[in-house]
TrEMBL record:
It comes from the Bacteria. It comes from Dyella japonica A8. Keywords: DNA-binding, Transcription, Transcription regulation. SMART domains: HTH_MARR. This is MFS transporter. GO terms for molecular function: DNA binding; DNA-binding transcription factor activity. Residues 12-144 form the HTH marR-type domain.
Amino acid sequence: MEHYNKKNFTVTQSIGFMLSKSRNLVAADLDSALKDLGITSQQMGVILSVARGLAQTPLELSRLLAIDTGLMTRMLDKLELQGWLTRRRSDQDRRVIHLGLTRAGHALAEEASGIAPQVLNRRLRHFSKTEFAELQRLLAKFIDGTDSS
């Protein structure tokens, strides 16, 4: 089924625009809430992804977080300089770099992980449990391109 055509397409009412605007609002809210920790929402994504074992290499992180490899390298440089992250070359394949968190990085991950739910809950405060579940289902369907019901 095609939902858009040349006549009914309006940029500010398109799904792409609304998703992008939603993402930007959440990122701005998170950046503000994380300011005292000295990290951005993107950096928090890196720290939490490594802390939770969702990605172990820069390439895995780039794919998971949809961040280009150049920006990822710069973020990892900064996080390493701050003393939150370590990089170690693989013994099996010198091209592969494994990421880890320092003790300070783990402490930062613990503190940051409590901030994101608060920020998201503020944005979702007018949603019922049913609406929240439906939003999650629809977003998963949109991302997958399949029906997740």
